[in-house]
Amino acid sequence: MSHVVEPVRLALFGDSLAAGVGATSRPDTLGPLLSADLASTGVEVEHRVYASSGARSVALAGQVATAGGWPRLAVVVVGANDLTHFVPVPEAVAHLAAALGALRRDGVEVVLVPAPDLGVVTLVPPDLRGYARDAGLALRTAQRRAAEAAGVHVVDTSAASELFAADPSMFSADRFHPSSAGYRVIAAAVAPVLRAAARALLQTP
């Protein structure tokens, strides 16, 4: 009798970047891009997107609750809207930590894509980019600490930020969200970390 291997269930939580706003087509969004990357390593994936445009960290609890016990792998992309709404770092990180903890208690391997460097966003006025850069760094640092405490994998987005800063084509027409090319850059940063998370999951008895 042949053994049927079920696809790994991957959930995407968070904001518009996880939802794919700005991409020209659905295959250019993070879910399909990351699923295709895992498939290229022999890991078949079924993915669902629970993220929503405009979501802040406070929305993660509801997204995770909606997912129930479905996911085995998760990618959390959050922080941009906390920054644009001036949510205090301790408040945003407390909501993030609670959601990460809930996922980990369910045995989910989680990858965090932390807050972006809004200082590279072309829509941000030049005189505010220094503030945006510093605010993003403060939130990312706190997010990383919370993720590491929860046993969550964290993506280093610094190289991707440099590419976005150097090439306006990384942004969609709204000059805020990534373009399809931008999503491919982000996916390339996330992919090796998600591969490691998938290996950890599949090695768990």
Give a brief description.
With 205 residues, the protein is α/β, with parallel strands linked by helices. 48% of the residues lie in helices and 12% in strands.
Give the termini separation. 22 Å
So how many helices?
8
Shape-level CATH architecture: 3-Layer(aba) Sandwich
Write the CATH fold name.
Answer: Rossmann fold
Number of structural domains: 1
The run of helices and strands is EHHEHEHHEHEHH
Can you identify the CATH superfamily? SGNH hydrolase
CATH class: Alpha Beta
Computed CA radius of gyration, to the nearest angstrom: 16 Å
The order of strands across the largest sheet is 2-1-3-4-5
What does this structure look like?
The protein is an alpha/beta fold. The protein has a single domain, classed as SGNH hydrolase (Rossmann fold), CATH 3.40.50.1110. The protein is 48% helix and 12% strand. The protein is built from eight helices and five strands; from the N terminus they run E-H-H-E-H-E-H-H-E-H-E-H-H. Strands 2-1-3-4-5 form a five-stranded parallel beta sheet, sandwiched between helices. Strand 4 (109-113), helix 6 and strand 5 (153-154) form a beta-alpha-beta unit. Helix 2 packs across helix 8 (180-202) and helix 5 (89-105) runs parallel beside helix 6. The protein is globular. The model has no long low-confidence stretch (mean pLDDT 94).
